Amino acid sequence: MKKRVLSGVTSTGKLTLGNYLGAISNFVKLQTENELFIFIANLHAITIPIAKKELATNTLEIAAWYFACGIDPNVANVFVQSDVLEHTQLSYILLCNSYLGELERMTQFKDKMQKTKQQNKTISIPTGLLVYPTLMAADILLYEPDLVPVGSDQTQHLELTKTLAERLNAKYQANLFKIPQQYQAQHSHRIMSLQDPTKKMSKSDDNPKNVIFLSDDLNTITEKIKKAVTDSENIIKYDIEKKPGVSNLLAIYASITNKTIAEAESYFASKDYSFLKTEIITTIHNLLAPIQEKQQKYLSDQASLIKLLQQGAENAKKIAASKLQEVQKAIGINYQ
Ligand code: AQP
């Protein structure tokens, strides 16, 4: 029997090579043998300040990237989070069953709160940032997925999702929620910032030099990779602690070419950093150029793109609505 897979990407910015290698490329691999529900998390995106136009543009652009990267709309259910209202409804129920202390303990909340304060000292911290994990729990629990492919930085949120599911199962009805399992693809690497390779490559990074965006052209890729931090040894070896810059470049190369790190190391044995960087520039460009062309095609026909998302939302809604009804009944909200 097919396994159900649920995941998403937040529409906080332009997609990065990290989002592709760490998430979207895995969705593409998983779609042949599983039932996929892949969404664009535009409600999670408003937990930090974001301009109206940017949010709408990001949402459509991400949909176009999904399909351009190879997610097949005839096989996978791709939808926008806000189009399935059940996410926010279940989120509220979960919120009422969560504790302030457990939400305040989330490291992502603490990190994002600190970053938001650094950017603007006078800003108040939005409550949405605090309750983000309850929305994420709802995103997951509505679909009863067998696998949830998310990065290791989401492990804590997934653990909270399990806690909430178990709490409600114990309080209202055993088996109300299926306990989700995190899925991490084999040989998958965390892609790091080009200028500070101890930090994750993130779409909301303020410095574009840290990030390869999926939309970057050859010149931009060349400039960014040439300036990527390495070290003075000129020895191509994978060692995250001592050589984080070179290790990151090796991880990027290995991920794109489907090689193991050992294979990548032996390919570059006796070569210098200049060769490594030139090779990586070509590898990234060869990966991205055809995807960029397809993405532009999807974006140029927005009506068809929106139709695909609506179809995906309709499919998602059937499952989400039935689960929500079951929950409402179990907790007494459904009074009829
Ligand atoms: N650098 C990365 N390396 C590997 N995987 C990554 N992912 C993100 N960055 C990397 C994976 O992409 C998926 C989507 O993540 P998200 O958009 O929901 O949130 P995120 O993990 O916080 O991604 P970003 O790019 O860092 O976004 P911002 O800047 O908004 O916080 C996840 O599966 C994630 O693991």
From TrEMBL:
Biological processes annotated in GO: tryptophanyl-tRNA aminoacylation
Keyword vocabulary terms for this entry: Aminoacyl-tRNA synthetase, ATP-binding, Cytoplasm, Ligase, Nucleotide-binding, Protein biosynthesis
Organism: Spiroplasma platyhelix PALS-1
Encoding gene (name): trpS
Name assigned to this protein: Tryptophan--tRNA ligase
GO cellular component, one term: cytosol
Keyword Cell membrane on entry: no
Xref: HAMAP family: Trp_tRNA_synth_B
Keyword Acetylation: no
Reaction(s) this enzyme catalyzes, per UniProt: tRNA(Trp) + L-tryptophan + ATP = L-tryptophyl-tRNA(Trp) + AMP + diphosphate + H(+)
